[in-house]
Specification:
With 179 residues, this protein is an alpha/beta fold. It has a single domain (4-178), classed as Peptidyl-tRNA hydrolase (Rossmann fold, 3-Layer(aba) Sandwich). It is 34% helix and 24% strand. It is built from five helices and seven strands; from the N terminus they run βαβββαββαβαα. It has a seven-stranded mixed beta sheet, with helices on both faces. A hairpin with a 4-residue loop joins β2 (42-44) and β3 (49-56).
Amino acid sequence: MTTSSFLVVGLGNPGPKYAGTRHNIGFDVADELAHELFASFSVHKKTNTDIAEARRGDTKVIVAKPRSFMNLSGGPIKALAQYFNVSPARIIVVHDELELDFGQIKLRLGGGDHGHNGLRSTTKSLGTKDYQRLSVGIGRPPGRMDPAAFVLKPWSKQEAQEVPIMCADAVDEILRALD
């Protein structure tokens, strides 16, 4: 497999119904990364994803947003990895994380899925846990709110003001990983 490519996949759910929700922070980060790399998205029919291709020095960067629902993200991620010949260690999956405080960013290689169905699907499809995960903290739901309902809720007005900063911080972390 080539060592000159990175695949960065933002997790989210397709369609306007899910735009602006906590679960779609991966898509928001992918949009910001593509903007930072001066790339624009187009449909990649063979993998059922939207992709933006760019170069950062000698490194080819493929930024992707699967067109499948979050829980089925693994299939498109595996298809992209095979199509672009990217090893799992050079895949960065960006996802929302309940276990991190709002706004915290954490990049790690491997590990568990923390109950995140998008990560579970990715691990199953790739056949390994040895890919990078960029967790974007969305905090815990208030009171006894169901976590599944919480992640699908839009940001509060105050949180929405912080989302661009979170996305910029996440992009900075990705760019450091690419260097």
